[in-house]
Amino acid sequence: MSSGRIFLSITVLLVFCIAGPAAAASIGTVWKEPLTVEGGSFSKLMFSYESSKVFAGGNQMYIRNWDTGKSWGGRTGNIAAMSADGNYVVYGSGNTLELLDKDGGGIWSRNMAGMVRAVAITDNGSLVVSADDQGNINSWLKNGEFLARNQTALVKQIAISPPGTLVVATTETGLLFMTPALNPVWSDTKTGSLDSEIAISKDGTTIITYGGRRVSSHTNTGTLNWMNDVGEESITGMACSYDCSVIVIGSQDKTIRAMDRYGKVHWTYLAEEWINSVGISQDGKVIVAAGIDKNLYVLDHSGKLLSKKMMNTIIHPRSLAVSADGRRIVVADEYALYGLILSTEPDFIERITVIPTSTRYIDTPTIVPTTETTVVASPVTSVTQVTPVPVASTPKSPIDPFTAIVAIGAGLSIVQGLRKR
Length: 421
What we know:
The chain has helices spanning 3-19, 346-350, 401-420; strands at 25-34, 42-47, 53-58, 62-65, 71-73, 80-82, 88-93, 96-101, 106-111, 116-121, 127-132, 136-141, 146-151, 155-160, 167-171, 175-178, 184-188, 197-200, 206-211, 214-219, 224-229, 235-240, 246-251, 255-260, 265-270, 275-280, 286-291, 295-300, 305-310, 320-322, 328-332, 336-344, 373-374. It has a single domain, classed as YVTN repeat-like/Quinoprotein amine dehydrogenase (Methylamine Dehydrogenase, Chain H). By secondary structure, the chain is mainly β. It is built from 3 helices and 33 strands. The two termini are 13 Å apart.
Protein backbone atom coordinates (compact mmCIF):
# COMPACT_ATOMS: atom_id res chain seq x y z
CA MET A 1 0.00 0.00 0.00
CA SER A 2 1.42 3.45 -0.89
CA SER A 3 2.23 5.99 1.79
CA GLY A 4 -0.43 8.31 0.30
CA ARG A 5 -3.13 5.68 0.72
CA ILE A 6 -1.94 4.90 4.25
CA PHE A 7 -2.07 8.61 5.11
CA LEU A 8 -5.61 8.87 3.69
CA SER A 9 -6.76 5.81 5.69
CA ILE A 10 -5.31 7.16 8.91
CA THR A 11 -6.89 10.58 8.29
CA VAL A 12 -10.34 9.05 7.78
CA LEU A 13 -9.90 6.95 10.94
CA LEU A 14 -8.89 10.00 12.97
CA VAL A 15 -11.84 12.06 11.71
CA PHE A 16 -14.20 9.23 12.73
CA CYS A 17 -12.63 9.07 16.20
CA ILE A 18 -12.91 12.82 16.69
CA ALA A 19 -16.56 12.85 15.53
CA GLY A 20 -17.37 10.04 17.97
CA PRO A 21 -20.58 8.03 18.16
CA ALA A 22 -23.93 9.76 18.49
CA ALA A 23 -25.44 9.73 22.00
CA ALA A 24 -27.41 6.56 22.47
CA ALA A 25 -29.62 5.16 25.19
CA SER A 26 -31.10 1.85 26.25
CA ILE A 27 -34.00 1.17 28.60
CA GLY A 28 -33.69 -1.55 31.24
CA THR A 29 -36.31 -2.88 33.66
CA VAL A 30 -35.32 -2.62 37.33
CA TRP A 31 -38.57 -3.83 38.94
CA LYS A 32 -42.15 -4.75 38.09
CA GLU A 33 -45.31 -4.55 40.20
CA PRO A 34 -48.27 -6.56 38.79
CA LEU A 35 -51.73 -5.04 38.90
CA THR A 36 -53.90 -7.21 41.16
CA VAL A 37 -57.23 -5.43 40.58
CA GLU A 38 -59.12 -7.07 37.73
CA GLY A 39 -60.03 -4.56 35.04
CA GLY A 40 -58.15 -1.82 36.87
CA SER A 41 -55.14 0.34 36.05
CA PHE A 42 -52.37 2.42 37.60
CA SER A 43 -52.42 6.18 36.86
CA LYS A 44 -51.40 9.62 38.19
CA LEU A 45 -47.78 8.44 38.45
CA MET A 46 -45.18 10.68 40.09
CA PHE A 47 -41.70 10.64 41.65
CA SER A 48 -40.75 12.30 44.92
CA TYR A 49 -38.40 15.22 44.25
CA GLU A 50 -35.34 13.17 45.22
CA SER A 51 -36.58 10.37 42.90
CA SER A 52 -36.39 7.92 45.80
CA LYS A 53 -40.12 7.17 45.91
CA VAL A 54 -42.74 6.35 43.28
CA PHE A 55 -46.46 6.98 43.63
CA ALA A 56 -49.18 5.35 41.55
CA GLY A 57 -52.88 5.97 41.94
CA GLY A 58 -55.74 4.65 39.86
CA ASN A 59 -57.70 1.52 40.72
CA GLN A 60 -54.83 0.28 42.89
CA MET A 61 -52.76 2.75 44.90
CA TYR A 62 -49.08 1.80 45.21
CA ILE A 63 -46.15 3.63 46.86
CA ARG A 64 -42.63 2.19 46.55
CA ASN A 65 -39.14 3.10 47.67
CA TRP A 66 -37.08 2.72 44.48
CA ASP A 67 -33.87 1.45 46.09
CA THR A 68 -35.09 -0.73 48.95
CA GLY A 69 -38.23 -2.07 47.30
CA LYS A 70 -40.28 -1.34 50.44
CA SER A 71 -43.85 -0.61 49.41
CA TRP A 72 -47.44 -0.27 50.56
CA GLY A 73 -50.83 0.42 49.03
CA GLY A 74 -53.68 -1.70 47.78
CA ARG A 75 -56.68 0.55 48.30
CA THR A 76 -58.31 2.43 45.42
CA GLY A 77 -56.35 5.56 44.57
CA ASN A 78 -58.44 7.25 41.88
CA ILE A 79 -58.58 10.37 44.07
CA ALA A 80 -55.18 10.52 45.75
CA ALA A 81 -51.86 12.39 45.62
CA MET A 82 -48.43 12.14 47.27
CA SER A 83 -46.50 15.11 48.63
CA ALA A 84 -43.31 15.75 46.64
CA ASP A 85 -41.14 14.92 49.66
CA GLY A 86 -42.69 11.43 49.72
CA ASN A 87 -43.84 11.71 53.35
CA TYR A 88 -47.61 12.09 52.94
CA VAL A 89 -50.49 10.83 50.83
CA VAL A 90 -53.90 12.50 50.71
CA TYR A 91 -56.70 10.14 49.81
CA GLY A 92 -60.39 10.56 49.04
CA SER A 93 -63.01 7.79 49.15
CA GLY A 94 -66.72 8.53 49.08
CA ASN A 95 -67.22 11.59 51.27
CA THR A 96 -64.13 10.83 53.39
CA LEU A 97 -60.81 12.67 53.13
CA GLU A 98 -57.80 11.07 54.81
CA LEU A 99 -54.15 12.03 55.27
CA LEU A 100 -51.71 9.09 55.44
CA ASP A 101 -48.07 9.01 56.51
CA LYS A 102 -45.15 7.65 54.45
CA ASP A 103 -45.88 4.10 55.62
CA GLY A 104 -49.62 4.23 54.92
CA GLY A 105 -50.71 4.91 58.50
CA GLY A 106 -53.65 7.25 59.08
CA ILE A 107 -52.87 10.73 60.44
CA TRP A 108 -56.37 12.19 60.30
CA SER A 109 -59.71 11.69 58.57
CA ARG A 110 -62.50 14.18 57.77
CA ASN A 111 -65.98 13.88 56.27
CA MET A 112 -66.99 16.16 53.39
CA ALA A 113 -70.48 17.50 52.58
CA GLY A 114 -70.41 15.52 49.33
CA MET A 115 -68.36 12.92 47.48
CA VAL A 116 -64.67 13.85 47.18
CA ARG A 117 -63.77 14.44 43.50
CA ALA A 118 -60.32 16.11 43.64
CA VAL A 119 -57.41 16.51 46.09
CA ALA A 120 -54.04 18.27 46.22
CA ILE A 121 -51.19 18.55 48.73
CA THR A 122 -48.16 20.84 49.05
CA ASP A 123 -44.65 19.52 48.47
CA ASN A 124 -44.07 19.13 52.21
CA GLY A 125 -47.61 18.20 53.24
CA SER A 126 -48.28 21.47 55.09
CA LEU A 127 -51.54 22.14 53.22
CA VAL A 128 -54.25 19.82 51.88
CA VAL A 129 -57.05 20.96 49.56
CA SER A 130 -60.10 18.93 48.56
CA ALA A 131 -63.18 19.46 46.39
CA ASP A 132 -66.51 17.61 46.51
CA ASP A 133 -69.47 17.10 44.19
CA GLN A 134 -71.46 19.79 45.99
CA GLY A 135 -69.14 22.56 44.76
CA ASN A 136 -67.21 22.90 48.02
CA ILE A 137 -63.45 23.48 48.08
CA ASN A 138 -61.90 22.98 51.54
CA SER A 139 -58.37 23.56 52.79
CA TRP A 140 -56.75 21.89 55.79
CA LEU A 141 -53.48 22.18 57.69
CA LYS A 142 -51.12 19.24 58.16
CA ASN A 143 -52.49 18.55 61.64
CA GLY A 144 -56.06 18.30 60.31
CA GLU A 145 -57.13 21.78 61.40
CA PHE A 146 -59.81 23.20 59.09
CA LEU A 147 -58.59 26.34 57.33
CA ALA A 148 -61.22 27.58 54.87
CA ARG A 149 -64.08 26.76 52.50
CA ASN A 150 -65.15 28.23 49.16
CA GLN A 151 -68.24 27.50 47.07
CA THR A 152 -67.54 27.13 43.33
CA ALA A 153 -68.64 25.32 40.20
CA LEU A 154 -67.71 21.63 40.12
CA VAL A 155 -63.94 21.16 40.15
CA LYS A 156 -62.08 19.08 37.54
CA GLN A 157 -58.60 19.26 39.07
CA ILE A 158 -56.75 21.09 41.87
CA ALA A 159 -53.05 21.93 42.13
CA ILE A 160 -50.98 23.81 44.71
CA SER A 161 -47.87 25.75 43.72
CA PRO A 162 -44.58 24.28 45.05
CA PRO A 163 -44.00 27.28 47.38
CA GLY A 164 -47.49 26.58 48.78
CA THR A 165 -48.81 30.09 48.24
CA LEU A 166 -51.31 29.55 45.41
CA VAL A 167 -54.19 27.11 44.86
CA VAL A 168 -55.25 26.60 41.23
CA ALA A 169 -58.46 24.85 40.24
CA THR A 170 -59.98 24.02 36.87
CA THR A 171 -63.78 23.92 37.07
CA GLU A 172 -66.71 23.34 34.74
CA THR A 173 -66.87 27.10 34.16
CA GLY A 174 -63.25 28.24 34.20
CA LEU A 175 -59.99 28.76 36.07
CA LEU A 176 -59.71 29.83 39.72
CA PHE A 177 -56.60 31.15 41.48
CA MET A 178 -56.87 31.31 45.29
CA THR A 179 -54.78 31.75 48.42
CA PRO A 180 -54.36 28.80 50.84
CA ALA A 181 -57.25 30.37 52.79
CA LEU A 182 -59.23 30.13 49.52
CA ASN A 183 -59.56 33.87 49.06
CA PRO A 184 -59.93 34.73 45.35
CA VAL A 185 -56.81 35.96 43.56
CA TRP A 186 -58.19 35.78 40.01
CA SER A 187 -60.82 33.91 38.06
CA ASP A 188 -61.92 33.39 34.47
CA THR A 189 -65.39 31.89 34.43
CA LYS A 190 -65.88 31.68 30.70
CA THR A 191 -68.72 29.33 29.80
CA GLY A 192 -67.69 25.85 28.72
CA SER A 193 -64.05 26.20 29.75
CA LEU A 194 -61.76 23.65 28.09
CA ASP A 195 -59.10 23.75 30.79
CA SER A 196 -58.63 20.53 32.74
CA GLU A 197 -54.96 19.68 33.50
CA ILE A 198 -52.59 21.98 35.43
CA ALA A 199 -48.79 22.39 35.65
CA ILE A 200 -47.05 25.00 37.83
CA SER A 201 -43.41 26.11 37.71
CA LYS A 202 -41.23 25.38 40.76
CA ASP A 203 -41.20 29.03 41.80
CA GLY A 204 -44.98 29.29 41.43
CA THR A 205 -44.89 32.18 38.96
CA THR A 206 -46.13 30.38 35.83
CA ILE A 207 -49.27 28.28 35.46
CA ILE A 208 -49.76 26.15 32.34
CA THR A 209 -53.17 24.58 31.62
CA TYR A 210 -54.65 22.67 28.73
CA GLY A 211 -57.94 21.31 27.46
CA GLY A 212 -59.05 20.22 24.01
CA ARG A 213 -56.41 21.53 21.58
CA ARG A 214 -55.72 24.63 23.65
CA VAL A 215 -52.68 25.35 25.85
CA SER A 216 -52.59 28.48 28.03
CA SER A 217 -49.98 30.22 30.15
CA HIS A 218 -50.81 32.60 33.00
CA THR A 219 -48.85 34.44 35.66
CA ASN A 220 -49.70 33.70 39.29
CA THR A 221 -51.83 36.85 39.36
CA GLY A 222 -53.95 35.73 36.41
CA THR A 223 -52.34 37.74 33.62
CA LEU A 224 -52.60 35.78 30.37
CA ASN A 225 -49.17 35.29 28.79
CA TRP A 226 -50.52 33.42 25.76
CA MET A 227 -53.21 30.99 24.63
CA ASN A 228 -52.59 28.74 21.60
CA ASP A 229 -54.38 25.96 19.81
CA VAL A 230 -51.87 23.16 19.17
CA GLY A 231 -52.12 20.32 16.64
CA GLU A 232 -55.06 18.88 14.74
CA GLU A 233 -56.61 16.71 17.47
CA SER A 234 -57.18 16.84 21.24
CA ILE A 235 -54.22 17.02 23.61
CA THR A 236 -53.95 13.91 25.78
CA GLY A 237 -50.91 14.65 27.96
CA MET A 238 -48.72 17.54 29.10
CA ALA A 239 -45.53 17.89 31.17
CA CYS A 240 -43.25 20.84 31.95
CA SER A 241 -39.62 21.37 32.94
CA TYR A 242 -39.00 22.84 36.40
CA ASP A 243 -39.39 26.45 35.20
CA CYS A 244 -41.97 25.72 32.45
CA SER A 245 -39.46 26.87 29.81
CA VAL A 246 -40.03 23.55 28.01
CA ILE A 247 -43.61 22.29 27.65
CA VAL A 248 -44.16 18.85 26.15
CA ILE A 249 -47.51 17.99 24.57
CA GLY A 250 -48.84 14.57 23.54
CA SER A 251 -51.81 14.47 21.18
CA GLN A 252 -54.33 12.24 19.45
CA ASP A 253 -52.79 13.38 16.15
CA LYS A 254 -49.90 10.94 16.93
CA THR A 255 -47.43 13.72 17.75
CA ILE A 256 -45.10 14.74 20.55
CA ARG A 257 -44.45 18.49 20.50
CA ALA A 258 -42.06 20.70 22.47
CA MET A 259 -43.03 24.31 23.15
CA ASP A 260 -41.04 27.09 24.79
CA ARG A 261 -42.16 29.45 27.54
CA TYR A 262 -43.65 31.78 24.91
CA GLY A 263 -45.92 29.15 23.35
CA LYS A 264 -43.83 28.55 20.23
CA VAL A 265 -43.57 24.94 18.99
CA HIS A 266 -39.90 24.11 18.35
CA TRP A 267 -40.20 20.56 17.08
CA THR A 268 -42.71 17.80 16.40
CA TYR A 269 -42.05 14.05 16.59
CA LEU A 270 -44.50 11.74 14.79
CA ALA A 271 -45.29 8.47 16.61
CA GLU A 272 -47.05 5.42 15.19
CA GLU A 273 -50.35 6.05 17.04
CA TRP A 274 -51.73 8.72 19.31
CA ILE A 275 -49.81 9.62 22.46
CA ASN A 276 -51.55 9.36 25.84
CA SER A 277 -48.84 10.23 28.39
CA VAL A 278 -45.71 12.38 28.46
CA GLY A 279 -43.00 13.09 31.03
CA ILE A 280 -39.93 15.31 31.22
CA SER A 281 -36.80 15.75 33.35
CA GLN A 282 -36.39 18.94 35.38
CA ASP A 283 -34.03 20.54 32.85
CA GLY A 284 -36.11 19.48 29.82
CA LYS A 285 -33.33 17.37 28.25
CA VAL A 286 -35.01 13.98 28.63
CA ILE A 287 -38.54 13.58 27.25
CA VAL A 288 -40.58 10.37 27.45
CA ALA A 289 -43.90 9.60 25.79
CA ALA A 290 -46.17 6.59 25.27
CA GLY A 291 -49.64 5.72 24.09
CA ILE A 292 -51.80 3.51 21.88
CA ASP A 293 -48.95 1.87 19.90
CA LYS A 294 -47.48 0.38 23.17
CA ASN A 295 -44.12 2.05 22.50
CA LEU A 296 -42.22 4.04 25.10
CA TYR A 297 -40.34 6.82 23.26
CA VAL A 298 -37.31 8.54 24.82
CA LEU A 299 -36.29 11.79 23.09
CA ASP A 300 -33.68 14.43 23.79
CA HIS A 301 -34.34 18.18 24.03
CA SER A 302 -34.07 18.58 20.24
CA GLY A 303 -36.64 15.87 19.49
CA LYS A 304 -34.11 13.21 18.51
CA LEU A 305 -35.13 9.62 19.34
CA LEU A 306 -32.67 8.16 21.86
CA SER A 307 -34.43 4.88 22.55
CA LYS A 308 -37.73 3.04 22.19
CA LYS A 309 -39.17 0.17 24.23
CA MET A 310 -42.24 -1.92 23.44
CA MET A 311 -44.54 -2.44 26.44
CA ASN A 312 -47.08 -5.27 26.73
CA THR A 313 -50.23 -3.21 26.19
CA ILE A 314 -51.30 0.35 25.44
CA ILE A 315 -50.34 3.15 27.84
CA HIS A 316 -53.25 5.18 29.23
CA PRO A 317 -53.25 8.91 30.12
CA ARG A 318 -51.18 10.01 33.15
CA SER A 319 -49.46 6.62 33.23
CA LEU A 320 -45.78 7.57 33.15
CA ALA A 321 -43.37 9.81 35.04
CA VAL A 322 -39.69 10.80 34.71
CA SER A 323 -37.29 11.42 37.59
CA ALA A 324 -35.75 14.86 38.10
CA ASP A 325 -32.45 13.86 36.46
CA GLY A 326 -34.10 11.92 33.62
CA ARG A 327 -32.44 8.59 34.47
CA ARG A 328 -35.45 6.83 36.01
CA ILE A 329 -38.80 6.20 34.35
CA VAL A 330 -41.93 4.69 35.83
CA VAL A 331 -44.67 3.56 33.42
CA ALA A 332 -47.87 1.53 33.69
CA ASP A 333 -49.44 -0.60 31.02
CA GLU A 334 -52.68 -2.53 31.53
CA TYR A 335 -50.92 -5.37 33.39
CA ALA A 336 -48.26 -3.86 35.64
CA LEU A 337 -46.24 -0.91 36.89
CA TYR A 338 -42.59 -0.88 35.75
CA GLY A 339 -39.51 0.83 37.15
CA LEU A 340 -37.14 1.49 34.24
CA ILE A 341 -33.61 2.86 34.08
CA LEU A 342 -32.22 4.89 31.20
CA SER A 343 -28.68 3.69 30.45
CA THR A 344 -26.81 6.13 28.23
CA GLU A 345 -23.44 6.85 26.66
CA PRO A 346 -21.17 8.98 28.91
CA ASP A 347 -21.45 12.11 26.76
CA PHE A 348 -25.23 12.08 27.11
CA ILE A 349 -25.12 11.56 30.88
CA GLU A 350 -22.82 14.57 31.28
CA ARG A 351 -25.34 16.77 29.50
CA ILE A 352 -28.08 16.04 32.03
CA THR A 353 -28.35 18.81 34.61
CA VAL A 354 -30.20 18.35 37.88
CA ILE A 355 -31.94 21.53 39.01
CA PRO A 356 -31.79 22.02 42.80
CA THR A 357 -35.22 21.66 44.36
CA SER A 358 -36.62 24.83 45.85
CA THR A 359 -36.59 24.87 49.65
CA ARG A 360 -39.01 27.75 49.97
CA TYR A 361 -41.76 25.92 51.82
CA ILE A 362 -44.30 27.14 54.30
CA ASP A 363 -44.87 24.87 57.28
CA THR A 364 -47.98 26.80 58.13
CA PRO A 365 -49.76 28.70 55.32
CA THR A 366 -50.47 32.36 55.97
CA ILE A 367 -54.04 32.46 57.26
CA VAL A 368 -56.11 35.34 55.98
CA PRO A 369 -59.30 35.77 58.04
CA THR A 370 -62.17 34.71 55.85
CA THR A 371 -65.65 33.34 55.76
CA GLU A 372 -67.21 31.35 52.93
CA THR A 373 -66.50 33.24 49.75
CA THR A 374 -67.98 33.25 46.28
CA VAL A 375 -65.44 33.78 43.52
CA VAL A 376 -66.18 36.77 41.30
CA ALA A 377 -65.16 36.56 37.64
CA SER A 378 -62.51 38.93 36.33
CA PRO A 379 -62.04 39.88 32.68
CA VAL A 380 -59.36 38.01 30.74
CA THR A 381 -56.26 40.11 30.15
CA SER A 382 -55.26 40.47 26.51
CA VAL A 383 -52.37 38.39 25.24
CA THR A 384 -48.96 40.02 25.51
CA GLN A 385 -46.92 39.81 22.31
CA VAL A 386 -43.49 38.31 22.94
CA THR A 387 -40.53 37.25 20.85
CA PRO A 388 -39.93 33.47 20.99
CA VAL A 389 -36.51 32.25 21.98
CA PRO A 390 -34.96 28.89 21.06
CA VAL A 391 -34.96 25.98 23.49
CA ALA A 392 -31.57 25.98 25.21
CA SER A 393 -29.10 23.24 24.32
CA THR A 394 -25.64 22.41 25.61
CA PRO A 395 -23.25 21.25 22.86
CA LYS A 396 -20.33 19.11 24.02
CA SER A 397 -17.06 18.22 22.37
CA PRO A 398 -17.25 14.49 21.51
CA ILE A 399 -13.56 13.85 22.29
CA ASP A 400 -10.97 15.40 24.54
CA PRO A 401 -8.70 17.81 22.51
CA PHE A 402 -5.50 16.41 24.05
CA THR A 403 -6.46 12.87 22.99
CA ALA A 404 -7.14 14.10 19.46
CA ILE A 405 -3.72 15.81 19.20
CA VAL A 406 -1.94 12.69 20.42
CA ALA A 407 -3.80 10.54 17.89
CA ILE A 408 -2.99 12.88 15.00
CA GLY A 409 0.67 13.03 16.01
CA ALA A 410 0.87 9.24 16.12
CA GLY A 411 -0.68 8.99 12.67
CA LEU A 412 1.76 11.48 11.16
CA SER A 413 4.71 9.63 12.74
CA ILE A 414 3.60 6.40 11.08
CA VAL A 415 3.41 8.14 7.71
CA GLN A 416 6.86 9.70 8.10
CA GLY A 417 8.34 6.30 9.01
CA LEU A 418 6.85 4.68 5.94
CA ARG A 419 8.16 7.42 3.66
CA LYS A 420 11.76 6.78 4.89
CA ARG A 421 11.61 3.12 3.82
